Amino acid sequence: MARVIVITLFCVCFGVWGGSSATASDGDRKISVYASIYPMYDFSVKIGGERVNVINMVPSGVEPHDWEPAAADIAGLEEASVFVYNGAGMESWVPDVLGSLRNKKLVSVEASGGIKLMEGHHHEDGEEEHEEHEEEGGDYDPHVWLSPMNAKTIMNNIRNALAAADPDGEAYYKANYDRYAAECDLLDKEFESALSGLSKKDIIVTHQAFGYMCVRYGLNQIPIAGLSPDSEPDPARMAEIIDFTKKNGVKVVFFEELASPKVAESIAASTGARTDMLSPIEGLDDEEAAAGEDYFSIMRKNLKSLVAALQ
Q1: Is residue 137 scored above 60 in pLDDT?
Q2: What is the pLDDT of residue 28?
Q3: What is the 3-state secondary structure (H, E, C) of 182-209?
Q4: Residue-wise pLDDT tens digits, 17-26
Q5: What angle do CA 85, 88, 92 make, to 5 degrees?
Q6: Largest CA-CA distance found in the chain, in angstroms, rounded
Q7: Which of 36, 234, 265, 301 is the most exposed place for a label (fewest CB within 10 A)?
Q8: Model pLDDT for residues 148-197, shown as the tens digit of each residue
Q9: pLDDT tens digit string along 61-73?
Q10: What is the rounded CA–CA span in Å between residue 79 and residue 98?
Q11: pLDDT tens column, 220-245
C-alpha cells in the first residue's frame, strides 16, 4: 500500500481534499457514487437509476485484481456521497484508502456483506472441494456476484447505502431493487433449468472464479491456476489438467476476456479440446462496453457457453 500512502500525501500537499457533497454537480443534483469494480458499478447504476451518477473506478479493459487508485480517484471519493466496494478480499487497497479519507459524510458499503464466503481446496485428481464461511479472514473467493442469489444480496446492500445517503429516494431505490431482484430470480431459474439435466458437470477454467456459480448449480470447477487470473500454473499442474481433460472427455477449456488465453489454448492443443470464453464479469472489454453489455446479458452468454460445453 505504499502507493496509496504516496497518493494520500500528494492529495494533502496539493489541496485536493474537499468537503462531502450530496450531488455529482450543482446542475444535475444527483448523488455521486464511486464503485470499486465493474459489478459494483453495474448494480449501482441499476439500483440508483436517475438519482445517481456512478463512477466505475477501474477503467474498461483493465483487470481489477491488482489495480490501485490514483490521486484523482481518492480526490473523487472525498467529494462522493457513496462508495460501493465488493469486499471478500477483492480490493486490498480499500482499508487504507478509507482510513485516509476526510469525507466524514461518505456512506461506504461492503456489498458482499451477509454472503457466506467460500474457500476452494484442490484434490490431487483436479477436482475441487468448497467450504463456506461467515467469518472474516482466509483466502476467499471474492467473485460472489456469479451466483444470481448473491447478486440479489449485493443489490440490496447497495439499495440500503443509497437510501442512507439519499433518504428522499428510498422508495425509488426499493422499486428498482424489486425489479432487478426479480430479474435475478428469473436468471437463477434459467441456469437451474438449463444445467440440471446435463450429465457432464466438469468445467476447466483458467481462473478460480466460478465457485459460487458451480456450487449453486451442481457443477465441478477445475481451475488451472488460482484466484488471481495472472497466476501461472506449474508444469505439474498443467500435466494434471491435461490428464483430467483426456480421461473425462472434457470438450472445452475456458478462458476469460481480461486475461491471456495462452494457457487454455495450450491445454486445448494437447487434448483435442476447444477453447471458449467464460466471463467472471470482473470488468468489460472495450467491445462489450461499446455493445452495452451488462451483468444479465453476460451471465446469459455464460450459460449458453456452459450448456454447449457440457452437452
Answers
A1: no
A2: 58
A3: HHHHHHHHHHHHHHHCCCCCEEEECCCC
A4: 333 333 333 4
A5: 70
A6: 63
A7: 234
A8: 999 999 999 999 999 999 999 999 999 999 999 999 999 999 999 999 99
A9: 788 887 999 999 9
A10: 13
A11: 999 998 776 667 789 999 999 999 99
Cell numbers representing residue 109 in the block:
458499503
**Percent of the chain's residues with pLDDT above 90:** 73
Note whether 270 and 204 are within 8 A (CB).
Answer: no
C-alpha dihedral (157, 160, 166, 168), degrees to nearest 10:
140
**Beta carbons within 8 Å of 195's beta carbon, 6+ residues apart:** 217, 218, 219, 303, 306, 307, 310
- What domains, with CATH codes, occur in the chain? 2-118+139-184 (3.40.50.1980), 197-310 (3.40.50.1980)
Residue 37, amino acid: I
Average pLDDT over the chain, rounded to whole?
87
Nearest to 252 by CA among 175, 299, 311: 311
How far is CA 160 from each of CA 33, 148, 172, 257, rounded to the nearest angstrom? 13, 19, 12, 32
Q: Which of 132, 128, 172 is nearest to 150 (CA)?
A: 132
What are 132's strand-pairing partners?
118
- Res. 277 pLDDT band, cuts 50 70 90: very high
